[in-house]
Amino acid sequence: MKRNYLAFAISLALASSLPAYGADDEEKQQNEETEMEVIEVRGILSSLKEAQSIKKEADNVVDALVAEDIGKFPDSNVAEAMQRIPGVSVNRLRGEGQSVTVRGLSGDYNVTTLNGRKIASETVGRDFNYDLIAAELIGGIQVNKTQQASLPEGGIGAIINIDTLKPLNVGSKVAGSIEGYYNERAGETDPQASLLISETFNDDELGILISANHTSSFTRFDSHSAQWGWNEWSEAELMPDGDPNVSGRFPSWPNIMVSTDQRERSGGTLALQWRPTPELDINFDALYTKYEIESTGNMISLALFEGTNLDNIQDVQFGADGHTNSITIGEPGNMDSPAIAELLESQNPRDSDAMQVGLNLNYIWDNFNFNVDMAYSEAEDASAAVSWVVVRTAIDTLEVNWDNGEQVPDISFGDTVLDENIDYGAWYARIDGDKVKDKTGNFNFDGTYEPDDGIISKVLFGTGYNMQDKGKTYWSQENPSAYTFRNGATDSEWINAPDSEKVDIAGNTLWGPLPGSALNPGNFDDFMGSSNANLPNTWAGINIPGLFDYYRSLDSEAFDQYLVPRPNLTGGNTYGVKEETIHAYAEMILEDEIAGMPYMLDFGLRYIDTTVTSWGYSQDPANIAFDEDGLFTDAVDTVGLVEFEGNYKKLLPSFNGKLGLTDDLVWRLSLSQAISRPPLTNLSPVTSIWQNEEKTPPENFIYENDPGLEPYYADQLDTTLEWYYSDSGTLNLAFYYKELHGFVIYEPTRETINGASFEVTRPYNDDENQSRIRGYELNWLQTFDDFLPDPLAGFGVQANYTYNNSESGEYTDDGEQLPFKGLSDHQYNVVAFYENHGLKVNVAYNYRSEYSLGKQWYWSNALNDWTSETLQVDEWGQLDMQVGYDITDNITLTLEANNLLDPDYVQYLNGDKNHVDYISSWGRSYRAGVRFKF
């Protein structure tokens, strides 16, 4: 493996200066937790100062969040809270923070732990969805931005640890909240509540803590999508007298959708703590959380590329920029040459849960501290039922106008109203999805030795076993188009029903007309909030149970055969990967003074030995055979269970240094080599074989994964300057550089199999090319108590700014290198707060500049081929506010307002913000209630 100068320098420094000593993440984590929790944090300023104290005292580069009070985190959403940390940006799903990116690296490059142990995740990949855990269950979060040998491996971006509370640190307390949640777009109020009970016994020797929470929320989410890209057409393809030399681009399948989510989250924690002597501390902790979402979308979809619509185009106006200004299909009042419109009902449920149980024993013996930790975690997504159900109808006229000065086009239907009273015909019904089950477990032994004197202040060491076993099963139907008449046919290939059940829709035979039980009335006011586009606000929805009852009445056997989803073992979509890692590490910390300045040097080595076992249902190239026309025989489709076992070993060096330039000024330098493991999809042992039968002769393809892929690795440099200039202010500057190697790329080759030519695509680790991320962070905290008289004292501000620059190694078709996906060049957070005389006010603004989602393909008429362009997300700024008032020492009234500016989330193409691929809006939301603590 190719290694650059930075990796060599790290290895050389460690080899020359590090003896065989070490320490473990779990023990150090536990000590840091105790330091954090033993201080009772109450209020905004106390929370911020405690987070700064954790940062200052840490041996590595760490940013932290601390609960403002028992059961009160800085934000009601965990991911939203983390965006206050420099370099952390949040990824939202339907307006709710779900996952985070740290210094440009997504969750696939980060590791999330709960109380120092890796927690299972219900996602298909390695990411973790923080919306699964309620903020009321959390005591604090630490984002480790640099490596230590005692920290778990796997996080090139960060190691993110979530702490829950311990009873002996909390004491005898009862705390909770009762709130109401209101989303202005949905117009409903839902209850939310939390409760925490902590009690100690035997003179604080034994403690128990129980917490529980439940949140319910109903939200609405509006969107417009170009869907399937802006493809290019010549005027001659669209109009009988069109000019073949004039062309323009328009979306193939534009749509507007109103979605509603009913969200239910429930969870709880249990902590038992026994400290029979000052030297022995035994902790048992458990967490369970469940998140259910019933998500329904009502869509109007415009199949502009569909044959009937293309045949009935009356007018097309192309713009000078190469995009279509407007298109008109059909004539007002004339149903002899109508347009086709579609209604689509989507259901995207989520049924996720996660649990973790752990036991920790910490014992102090003389100068040694020993820690034994064991834990088990499970997570599951049992949804597997994403549905897209489509029906079609005829309308006299369809007009779409993109040249309206808005990011959403004008859409009108002439004299037709798409309500439940017109005729609709059956079209498409897809139900599919993944079921995911993840299990993690660990058994770790960690130790610390602290000499009585000498330059060596601490030696940490440890070993352990960690396991993750994740499996994915894909569920799908045999034929979602079973109730569709193919290519304008008047007889169905799959359904046996009488002709009386057929209806003519714009010259096409469909099953129908659909009964009233298959449709719902729909009225959607204020679509997209601030948009001034001319859009319909009334269209029917599909009642999927009623529609499916109608389908069964046509042919129940066909329905059961074609539309009922079952586990799908074809296509390489069902597989599992188990990773078992044995680790050992040594870490030595030196502390002394140089020229009167105290310093700390932390040298570490972490050794890992990982065994990968993967399984999947795969096609076999040995079954490749052809008929007389050169087409595959049925034997090619045969799948069988295959398994693979592989192994890799890594030695990961790390160095963290800290120098106290003055009592208030701290300089840090960190060097390390870190890894992140490849995506689980790449590690499945599955081979897929297919054929393009439309070509003459047919084109043959093989796509393989490789369970033997090595982890990515990164050589990292971090340096910070931290100025703690007063009790009321700090200023921190950080610079970081990451050089990443070994990204997985796929490269096609030509091979001859059974006498036929195949394009074979396999993944491999690219060790020749590097990707780079560099940037800096600026963080400032200032309170104004020293400058303002009472009652104005209590004002403060926290602000941070992050600049990122990256080279991903991925290029556009024009040869321009793309940045990392999801990486904004600029992001900043500003939090202004006031806390005095029982009043607490917190106003937070979060901003991130535009970022790339990578390449998107579209059809080019000029090239007569597919080509790509860059898909970007527009800049985003969100304003949130929290207000609390202590009516007594024990009771606080609360009000929280989120997304006050209500910006649109916009994806656009090639840097042209008028060339919108997707736009959505979810409105403002509010929480109001009461918190109590006794």
Automatic annotation (TrEMBL):
Pfam families from the UniProt entry: Plug, TonB_dep_Rec_b-barrel
Alphabetical list of InterPro entries matching this protein: Beta-barrel_TonB, Beta-barrel_TonB_sf, Plug_dom, Plug_dom_sf, TonB-dep_rcpt-like, TonB_rcpt_bac
Bilayer topology term: Multi-pass membrane protein
Domain TonB-dependent receptor-like beta-barrel: start-end pairs: 399-900
Alphabetical UniProt keywords: Cell outer membrane, Membrane, Receptor, Signal, TonB box, Transmembrane, Transmembrane beta strand, Transport
Keyword hit for Glycoprotein: no
Location of the protein in the cell: Cell outer membrane
Gene Ontology CC entries for this record: cell outer membrane
TonB-dependent receptor plug domain boundaries: 56-157
Main location, first listed in the record: membrane
PANTHER family xref list: PLUG DOMAIN-CONTAINING PROTEIN, TONB-DEPENDENT RECEPTOR-LIKE BETA-BARREL DOMAIN-CONTAINING PROTEIN
Protein name: TonB-dependent receptor
Natural source organism: Shewanella insulae
Lineage of origin: Bacteria, Pseudomonadati, Pseudomonadota, Gammaproteobacteria, Alteromonadales
